[in-house]
C-alpha cells in the first residue's frame, strides 16, 4: 500500500448531496465536477460536522466498461486507511488485557529477526525496523495471487531488518500484516470477522468490509489509470497480500462515521486514543497528523491498485473529511486542499486544465537533458508515447500538460515551461529560470 504525505473522458456523471444550499458546498461540487469532466478525477467525497453529513458526492464511474456511474453507496478499496481499523482493534485488545503495549513479537513470531526486542508499540508506530515487503521487487510477482499466512510470515522473516528497533521510524506494511496475524491468534477469529464484529457492526457501518474479487453487482468500483485518452482498468491485488495493512473497502460516508466515532470514544477509550495519537519520529500508532494551514488533522491515507484515499479529522471543529478515488489523474493532495480551502472560505482558484493537441513529432523534439546556470539541478524531458514528462535530478517525474505547441504546465505545482530553440524557460512561484539543452 502506497504511503502518501498529505500537504495540506467525456463528461462524467455526478451525484452530490449537501446541507442546505450553501455556496461553499456548491463550489466544492463544481470543483469536483470540473476535475471529473476533464478526466482528472473519479471518486467520492464526504464531509461530516459532528454527526451530520454536510456534503456527500460521487463522481465518474464505478465501472467504465459498462458505463456504470458511481453513487454515494459505491465501495472503494481504502488501502492503508485499513491500518486505523487494525490499530483500533489492537487497542481494544489491550483494554481487554489480552495484549500489552510492550508485548514482545517473539511471543507470536520468534523467527523474525530481533523479535525479542520488538513490541506491539514498535509495530504500531513503525519503529520495529522490519523491512516493508511491498518495497521488494518480488512483490510484483505475487501481489495478485493468494498467499498463506505461513508464506507471508516467512517472507517477512527472510527480509531481516532495515534498522535497529527504536532507532527511527520507517513506514512498513509488514508491521500491520503481523498485527493482523496477532489479532487472529489472540481472538481465535479471522481478521475479517474481527473487523466486522468489533467495529463495523458496533458502529452500524453499511458499506465497510474486507474485500475480495471486485464484484460490480455489489456496487464495488474498479480502479483505473488514465493513458492520455481513456481510463484503463487496473489489475487487482489478492486480499491476502494486503490483509490487515490494506484489505478493507468502504465509502467516504462510512469512513467519516468511523473516525468521528474513534474520536468520540465509541471504539476505544480516551486514554487509548491519546496513546494512538502520540507521535514518534512523525508517526502515531495507525494515525498521522496532516497539516492544513494552522489546522492539524488526524487520520491516514491509502493507496492500492489504482485507488487512493484520504481520511482526516479536525477535533476543534469536529470535522471529518474522506475522499476515495478510483481514477486519479491529478495530485490528490491538491484536490483535498481545494476542498478544504473552499470549505473554510479561503480564496481558491480552480486549476487551469486547458489542454492543447500537439503533434507527437513536436513533443519528441523537446526530449533531452537541460541545464541552467542559476539552478544546480538538471531537468530531463521525455516523451512516453502520450505526453511529455519532466524530471529534475533526484526527484520524481511529473507530466507536462500542453497549453500550445510551445507552452506546457504542471498546475499542481504552479509550473509553466515555455520551449524555445535549444532550451526552455521555466516559471514557478514568481521566479523565472532559463534552461539550455545539453
TrEMBL record:
<keyword id="KW-0732">Signal</keyword>
<dbReference type="InterPro" id="IPR012338">
    <property type="entry name" value="Beta-lactam/transpept-like"/>
</dbReference>
<dbReference type="Pfam" id="PF00144">
    <property type="entry name" value="Beta-lactamase"/>
</dbReference>
<feature type="signal peptide">
    <location>
        <begin position="1"/>
        <end position="19"/>
    </location>
</feature>
<feature type="domain" description="Beta-lactamase-related">
    <location>
        <begin position="44"/>
        <end position="330"/>
    </location>
</feature>
<dbReference type="InterPro" id="IPR050491">
    <property type="entry name" value="AmpC-like"/>
</dbReference>
<dbReference type="InterPro" id="IPR001466">
    <property type="entry name" value="Beta-lactam-related"/>
</dbReference>
<protein>
    <submittedName>
        <fullName>Beta-lactamase family protein</fullName>
    </submittedName>
</protein>
